[in-house]
Amino acid sequence: MTGTPSGRLRQTILERLKDPAAHFPAGRAQGDPAETGVTARAVAAGLGVPRRTAAAHLGLLARLGLLRTRRIRCRTHYRRDETRIAEVARMFEKGW
What we know:
Blueprint: H1 5-16, H2 20-23, H3 33-36, E1 38-39, H4 40-47, H5 51-63, E2 67-72, E3 75-80, H6 82-93
Antiparallel strand pairs: 1-3, 2-3
Helix pairs in contact: 4-5
């Protein structure tokens, strides 16, 4: 596990996004959270952190390519990019 509190929070976000319906409150008629993703507000509520904190970490993970984003109405929804996560994992396994 990553050593810093921020690193642990990002790792927790990635882990919980594997099964978002089980970890984050359902949005207002946005469909299946595994398909559409979850908002920063839902992540904040699910982790007990401020929305701005969740949004900052989600934004970083998205910029790194580990999360995909999708705009629905005026909110950004986040979901894992499994292909990119696997690529990064392989790089670390190879001793990158």
